[in-house]
Specification:
Structural class of chain A: mainly alpha
Mean pLDDT of chain A: 93
Low-confidence stretches of chain B: 1-17
Strand content of chain B: under 5%
Helix content of chain A: 55-70%
Radius of gyration of chain B: 19 Å
Radius of gyration of chain A: 21 Å
Distance between the termini of chain A: 53 Å
Oligomer: heterodimer
Chain lengths: 216, 116
């Protein structure tokens, strides 16, 4: 098992990879609790603003339009999906780092630094969209203390944003290692583990986008 | 055979024979296009008032979302190609998580079974 680059285990699998899958499994349950809290409180706020409905007096002091901005969130969803593509290309580039690259296309596809940077950049762009959304909500009168929708919405999307932030920092760490000494095929597992985390953050957003933003 | 056509080798977890090769770069691009199309479809149906008012709206969005979820997990997270232990570590908690959501929605009256 020595040629696989990890200490022998009874399963023959690297403990680090088993650990990240177990962690992702536990994260499924964390986000399930946050999503179910949001869904349970959905439609039970006694004062506005509301996610999909207009809030009129006397429930609200003034007429408030639905607060969710679907075009902006659709754009941020697209950005996160593209970041997942960049992440798999980064992993593939590291796995094939020792293969000769002749054409410009092969050089671009095989540039792990480029794809790690792109993934981190797209993740940061997603966070920028989220900061814009949160700021505009606060300006429109929705904070985490306003109503049940505000409490559950900011908690759910805030937790997701914190996970994206951790992912971006992780990616930047890998990029720094790649710049410093170059990531080789023997390092593919550490990139694979980061990629699994990043894709998980993406699939959680797929669920949030549908359940929170689109369904009403 | 060009570089982009070569199969991307799997990482160092090929301990058992069940582990298959990871997808090619072209597969990754195709998956990205499919995910983009599904997302566009989701947003498009959101803006069709007659469809939003119909009973098909929520099931359609849930199916499209589940499809995207499965595609990312199977192809980008390589669960289709990896060891079955990883599949169990993910699908076990995922089933518990989904059962929790559905149970709580029933408990708090968001989902109702109509008898008879």
């Amino acid at each position: 098992m020595e040629h696989h680059g990890h200490t022998p285990t009874t399963t023959g699998l690297d403990n680090r990879k088993v650990a990240i899958w177990a962690f992702i499994g536990s994260e499924c349950m964390l986000f399930a609790s946050l999503i179910s809290t949001y869904l349970i409180y959905k439609g039970r706020s006694v004062k506005g603003p509301f996610p999909h409905e207009v809030c009129s007096p006397p429930v609200c002091d003034t007429v408030m339009k639905p607060i969710l901005n679907i075009p902006v969130t659709s754009a941020s969803t697209f950005v996160l999906l593209v970041s997942s593509l960049a992440m798999v290309l980064a992993l593939a580039a590291v796995e094939n780092a020792d293969q000769p690259k002749h054409t410009l296309g092969e050089k671009i596809l095989g540039n792990s630094k480029l794809w790690l940077f792109m993934t981190a950049l797209l993740g940061t762009t997603f966070l920028g969209f989220q900061a814009f959304e949160f700021t505009s909500f606060v300006h429109e009168g929705l904070t985490i203390r306003t109503n049940l929708f505000g409490s559950s919405f900011f908690t759910l999307t805030g937790f997701h944003g914190a996970h994206v932030t951790a992912g971006v920092l992780w990616l930047l760490t890998l990029l720094a290692i790649d710049i410093r000494r170059g990531l080789k095929p023997k390092d593919a597992l550490i990139v694979d583990i980061a990629a699994l985390y990043w894709h998980f953050v993406d699939v959680v957003w797929i669920a949030i986008f549908t359940l929170v933003y689109l369904i009403h | 055979m060009t570089h982009s056509d070569t199969h991307v080798s799997h990482v160092d977890h090929a301990a058992l024979g069940e582990v298959k090769e990871h997808p090619t770069w072209s597969t990754y691009w195709k998956v990205a296009v499919i995910l983009t199309i599904i997302t566009a479809l989701e947003v498009w149906v959101y803006y069709i008032p007659s469809f939003v008012a119909s009973h098909l709206f929520v099931p359609t969005l849930l199916i499209l979302s589940a499809l995207k979820f499965a595609i990312v997990v199977l192809f980008y997270m390589h669960l289709r190609y990896d060891h079955r232990l990883f599949r169990a570590l993910f699908t076990g908690p995922l089933i518990i998580a989904m059962a929790t959501i559905v149970s709580l929605l029933f408990l708090f009256g968001h989902l109702v079974i109509h008898a008879g």
